[in-house]
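RECORD TYPE: inverse folding
INPUT: structure tokens
STRUCTURE:
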């Protein structure tokens, strides 16, 4: 093997090792690991993780992976939501008045918060769409 081929092969190996380390760092960081733990998982230093985080492509990929994880967890929470609402409904029929009052208070407090969150989401959507019109986003103006 000539000198150029050896250098080329060494460069390819370096690229493969970096890609593998990046993948391990990304997985660990997306799962919520600290830089030190991500570095340990990837077999690199925490300084390397900090340096990689300054790379816009690396940081964007991490943000994308985190968004996927959040979306997955949100979906799982939504699936559990119906069961949670059923439990609250059952608590409204509890024998103890205090339990019924706590359930009612939790339901009403949650309803008000979710309603406000929905209202804010509609307003934000209107702003993002450039309309600036709350009504254009489909709000009915009730609360």
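DESIGNED SEQUENCE:
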């Amino acid at each position: 093997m000539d000198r150029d081929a050896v250098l080329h092969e060494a460069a390819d190996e370096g690229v493969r090792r970096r890609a593998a380390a990046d993948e391990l760092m990304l997985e660990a960081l997306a799962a919520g690991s600290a830089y030190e733990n991500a570095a340990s998982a990837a077999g690199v230093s925490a300084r390397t993780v900090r340096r990689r985080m300054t790379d816009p492509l690396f940081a964007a990929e991490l943000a994308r992976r985190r968004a996927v994880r959040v979306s997955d967890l949100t979906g799982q929470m939504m699936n559990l939501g119906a069961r949670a609402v059923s439990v609250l409904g059952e608590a409204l029929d509890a024998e103890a008045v205090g339990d019924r009052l706590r359930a009612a208070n939790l339901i009403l407090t949650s309803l008000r918060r979710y309603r406000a969150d929905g209202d804010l989401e509609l307003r934000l959507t209107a702003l993002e769409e450039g309309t600036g019109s709350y009504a254009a986003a489909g709000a009915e103006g009730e609360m």
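NOTES: The two ends are 77 Å apart (CA to CA).
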